[in-house]
Design goal:
This protein has three helices and two strands, in the order H-E-E-H-H. With about 70 residues, the chain is mainly α. Strands 1-2 form a two-stranded antiparallel ribbon.
């Protein structure tokens, strides 16, 4: 019975992780498709992420963007 409970918990976690991955994928697609240029920084002022539109608007070269020194 304990093994059955462990399997059930594992399956619940697996389903939750799959749903989380699906939602993250949809969010990323929306982020990338927006007409706005977006740059996200953390509380420490470090770059967390940005979209291609941000790079295009500010004419930032891909190699500079990859260095995270925008």
């Amino acid at each position: 019975q304990q093994t059955g409970l462990q399997i059930a918990r594992f399956l619940e976690q697996s389903d939750a992780l799959a749903r989380q991955a699906e939602l993250l994928s949809m969010l990323q697609a929306t982020f990338d498709a927006t007409a706005d240029g977006i740059l996200v920084s953390g509380l420490d002022q470090r770059i967390v992420t940005y979209n291609q539109r941000f790079l295009d608007l500010w004419m930032i070269a891909p190699d500079i963007a990859a260095s995270q020194q925008i």
